[in-house]
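Hello,

Our lab assistant flagged a job as stuck in the queue for most of the afternoon. It eventually completed. Since we weren't sure the result was trustworthy after the delay, we are filing this so someone can double-check. Below is the sequence as submitted and the structure that was eventually returned. Let us know if re-running is recommended.
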Amino acid sequence: MRTTVNILGVRVDKITAEDAVTRAEELLRTDGVSAIYTPNPEIVMAAYNNPEFLEILNKADLCTADGIGVVYASRMLKDPVPERVAGFDLTCSLLSRIAKTGEGVFLFGAKPGVAERAKENLEKTYPGLVVSGFRNGYFTPEDDDSIVEQINQSGAKLLLVCLGAPKQEQWIDAHRDRLHVNLCMGVGGSLDVFAGEAKRAPKIFIQCNLEWLYRLLKQPKRIGRYAALPKFILTVKKEG
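-- returned structure --
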């Protein structure tokens, strides 16, 4: 049974990283199409201001705190999540496990050519991993049917949708009933990292919960996005 904390209407699972990957593995082997989302403060605020997006997030079978701001918010509410469970880390842990068991993964998102490079790198990083197919994230609504068909024909059990929020969650929700995979995960820019297009923060930044600072230093243009964090904290305090 899930145990969650309500953060501005979003039900975030109170779960450790280890238990999250075990749960993801269980969902991967469960009939039907499950979904995992990993909201950060920016995503939670978007859902707070968009009831339809909030409803989509709350349809998740697992919703982890990707962002130290979400962890701090849960502590402010005196109903803390055990730790941050970043979508990228959860994905890596799950891929490591299924590389040993043979379930296929489909990569969907990023610029043309990125998913192909991600496939090559992932197969080197996780020997035995089956990348059943890939598709870039540039498409129109008219392409949706062919994308769903491509995913279904691949035989993949895991679908990584990397379109950025809220587009990735909306796409999963809109097509969930037609997909033949067992598990969909919305994991943002993960394909760019897997392909070597972007770099993850050094471990010291991650361990100190300062990954956001590393990203800001590398991409100062992101300052507008991070300016939303104080508003998020203030809103949690007001609504809590």
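-- support follow-up --
The delay was a queue issue, not a problem with the job. The result is valid. The first strand starts at residue 4 and ends at 7. The chain is about 50% helix and 15% strand.
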